[in-house]
Specification:
- With 110 residues, this protein is an alpha/beta fold.
- It is built from 4 helices and 4 strands, in the order ααβαβαββ.
- It has a 4-stranded parallel beta sheet with strand order 2-1-3-4.
- α2 crosses α3.
- The radius of gyration is 14 Å and the shape is globular.
- The termini are far apart.
Length: 110
Amino acid sequence: YQRRVRGAKLCSGVASDGNIPCTPKGCMHLIKSTGVTLEGSKAVVVGRSKIVGYPMRDLLLAANCTVTTCHSKTRDLGAETRHADILVVATGKAGLVTGGMVKPSAVVID
């Protein structure tokens, strides 16, 4: 029973017991390895899944980033992504974000 509850919490994105899904955790490790200053950075997460998008948003918020969450139906997605210091794309849709939608100095995880 306890394992199922933990699994359900993890899948719902509300695991408060320290369990972090591996993909967002790995993305944070990659972002930190670039040397970018997280605190005060504008981060955009494209994707709202409970396994990647929401946990990624929460990790960036915990690192004191200003975070915007977008998705495949966001109007003028490029207007949001062009302002991002950190851009994480986690939609599984190839070509959703193109080079013209990215700030030249941004850290991008796609």
